[in-house]
Amino acid sequence: MGLEIKYIEGQTPLSEEEMEGLMISSITTRGELNEFEQYNIEKAIEWTLGLKITPKQLLSEKFIKDLHKKMYKDVWKWAGVFRDSEKNIGVKSYKIVVELKNLLDDAVYWFQNNTFSNEEFAIRFKHRLVSIHCFPNGNGRHSRLFADLIMQKLYDRSYFTWGKENLNKANETRKNYIKALQEADNNYFKPLIDFAKS
Ligand SMILES: Nc1ncnc2c1ncn2[C@@H]1O[C@H](COP(=O)(O)OP(=O)(O)O)[C@@H](O)[C@H]1O
Ligand SMILES: [Mg+2]
Question: Which candidate, 9, 47, 52, 153, has a CA 20 to 30 Å from the CA of 66?
Fold first, then answer.
């Protein structure tokens, strides 16, 4: 019994134990799972719209967790909880807290010193966040919404458009997105910035 999920390139498979954290027992397909997640994420986005938050509060471990929790709490028991299993993407699970602290310290510095353009700051942050891979799943969508919130809450600028397609499906746009992430893995951020604005 239970849900068998087929994974596409660049997705993080869930462990048995993580699969058991599914809150909605009626879900039997990836399509249904995506829909429930999407519905939860839309509620989270609505919550962010009215949210007043300082840069220090935004760039904090607490908010990283709170946002993930808001996005997935109706679907996954482990929403907002750092993973303790190893994944094909991401740092060793015991290193998550310290790697995230390094990122957040860097980000506060970048923000205060205007080290990068607004866009490059948001995209560099998003890429390092998803490369740490704090959670068992949902890291890609969480990191994209986080980049959007950097733009909106820190700079009063509009959200990125991320190729204007559903990036959870194996399509051409997702391929371009994964390619841009791989360029960013090599410290070349322009393709990912261009993609986010497309
Ligand atoms: N080479 C890579 N470098 C950095 N991030 C990557 C790479 N490949 C995939 N990713 C990110 O990891 C995400 C998959 O992680 P996952 O936790 O399953 O997130 P989601 O469920 O939101 O897709 C992808 O959506 C993508 O954002
Ligand atoms: Mg996933």
Answer: 9
